[in-house]
Amino acid sequence: MRDLLPYLKLYKKHWFGLTLGMLLGLATLGASIGLLTLSGWFLSAAAVAGLTVARETFNYMLPGAFVRGFAMGRTAGRWGERVVSHNATFKLLTDLRIFFFQKLAPMIPGRVSNLRDADLLNRLVADIDAMDHVYLRLISPVTIGVLGVAGLTALICWFDQTLGLTLGAILLLLLLTWPVLFYKLGKRNGAELTQNKADMRVATLDWLQGYSELTIFGAEARYRAAIYTAQEKLLANQKLNASFNGLASALLMLANGWTLVLMLWLAADGVNGQAPDPMIALVVFATMASVELLMPIAGAFQYLGQTLTSARRLNEVILAEPDVVFPTDTTRHSGQFDIAFDNIGFAYNDSEQPVLRDVSLTIPAGHKTAIVGQTGSGKSTLIQLLCRYWDVQQGEVRIAGTRLQDWNESDLRAAISVVSQRVDILNGTLRDNLIMAKPDADDALLRETLQRVGLGKLLDAPGLDAWLGDAGRQLSGGEKRRIGIARALLHNGPILLLDEPTEGLDKQTEKQIMALFESHFTNKTVIFITHRLVELEKMDTICLIEQGEIVEHGNHHQLLAEQGRYFQLNQTL
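^ thats the sequence. predicted structure below, dont judge the formating
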């Protein structure tokens, strides 16, 4: 249960709605028990009165009014409890998702690099959804059940102490034993159900995202079969869950039936020493109504295993410490955005082989530097270290004369604009996809920026309100790169990082993209990552990296004149 503690603290914020929901649930329960109990007594008393002279004086109106009142109260209470409880729960889940994302963001990519995107999505959606069981299926039913047992016991004790204590003892015994029984029954299945949900989501997203490639290479059927396998396992878990629900209902009815027989036998000679009268019906119908107390509890605890498994999966992220911690003080720097890598070394956590070794490089402010090398040579790792995705394990990195560890996160992000080979398009409007780079940008600035990067045709109706992403306008590879450039223009950081921005584009589009960089990003400190030796004569400096080390350094003409490794690559590529 300790796994649930981080989430119980969030309940304090919504204590009023959650408490009000439980009070309405308790009132609804009281109205249901009162309705059935009073109805049983009323019918019996009316029948007895009709057979005697008391029929002339029997008050039919007052009990009838209470019956109607309980009926309306039960309906209104049930509606109010559903509205209030679910409203508070949805707000709680919203806060929990925000809380989870706030904990997740500082750990990207270091601590969560071993997790699949689909698995993270499952934690953010399905695992957090499972946390509503804590209130709706555990806290609220148990609290209402305990208070209901106490209230019903007190009611019957008012008429007959022996009958009241007997019924209370039976209900309390069931209240204590059934949660343990059904938790044990559902623990393993709940854990498997949670994991199988995650497996099915991962398999489905793998199939959807890679459908084109899988079809081309003949692997689509195998990935689709993995979805069916995960689905069959999930359906088996859900079927077993339904069986537990049926077992809980059957045992509840059996226990209620035997309790009813016992209470009828005890009350057969009369209630509280009196001759048999309609009070027997009151006790019997009150016993029948006690099923309302235990119904939510009977099967609720079988979901506890599922909830605890989801909590543990969430805790793997929430309780983890980020590898990179930013200071909160305002960054002090020279204002000249030069970059210095001083004898840095770096290796990923799961690798003994260093990715970068003894790399030293100085880039003056306003200079444009190309870093070239084959795939896997450490080029992208270098700029990821500059963005402080990870911390170097040897040496230090400086921007504007200040150690990277002394930059706070907001200042560092404001200083760096990035254009990568993968430009993510959000499911949203064209405007939404641009203002993420500059939230205070007005429509006029957005239109001007699109014109500058050659995307003026996107401004045709509906313009900035055009929907992009799934079920929206599809963009070509070149258009996506131009969206990335537009974001960099809007962000307007003094440092520009270009990570393979022309990868996968045809030569004509590649030249257009490079021309955009040349015309729109003057007076900025630029690092251009590429393995293609294109347009490099326009760079102030070129660094050739192989196996994590800088092997050549100079401008295009110098490196060609040396006829070294760069010269050889230039001849072959």
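Residues 374 and 531 are 6 Å apart (CA to CA).
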